[in-house]
Amino acid sequence: MSSLQSRNVIQLVDQAIERFLRQCVPLPEATIELSFEAPDKAWGAAVTRPTVNLFLWQVKRNAARSQTGLQQREGADGGIQRKPASPVVDMHYLVTTWASELDDEHLLLGSILTCLLSYSTLPDEHVPDELPRDGALGVGLASDGLRSPGEFWSALGGRLKPGLEMEVTVPIDVYAWAMTPAAVDSLILTSETMLQRTRPRPAVPAAPRLTRRRTGTSTVVGRKPAPDAPATDSSEDG
What we know:
Largest sheet: 5 strands, mixed
Strand content: 25-35%
CATH topology of the domain at 9-62 and 75-179: STM4215-like
CATH architecture of the domain at 9-62 and 75-179: 2-Layer Sandwich
Shape: elongated
Strand order of the largest sheet: 1-2-5-7-6
């Protein structure tokens, strides 16, 4: 899924969850509403028939499932494409049920609980095409409560209600595939290349060596004569 899709990943996950719960629980559209709005006082006062509220209140990165390194695949032209591994996030939904009778609320909530305990991943039939499939989306009850119920409902300005916390784990494809350079499997040497590799290097003349000679009370510094040059003595007779 490209990050430039018209619908973002949260909208797509909302759609997958609604499809899943409506079939699994089930939640018939004709008799039960399903809402993703914040369940505050104003929203609760407008509820007129049995409703399941799925409020997304937290999204965080899943460090345990996130991977490092590169993914690899073969491109349409036969080349190798690579991209970084997709990051994985946990989306936490507070699930509450709303009805005129408390028994009806508990009946709905218990049915949703049974459904969530029966699955560990969202079935592919409920997952939109833009999201990864093959059991890539995990679903279930959140393992830890990060916020107390009183604190949560106080923040929403509503009355305390029973509910459960659903966790959906989603790999998010935010990186694009990129072609990798072809590997070098041969090397061609031309005659010019071979000539350059075998041509002898020019000799570098050795640095001249200096000698010291003492003449009377003076020291004379000069070059040492080459082996085939006649030796000369510049000293003066006293």
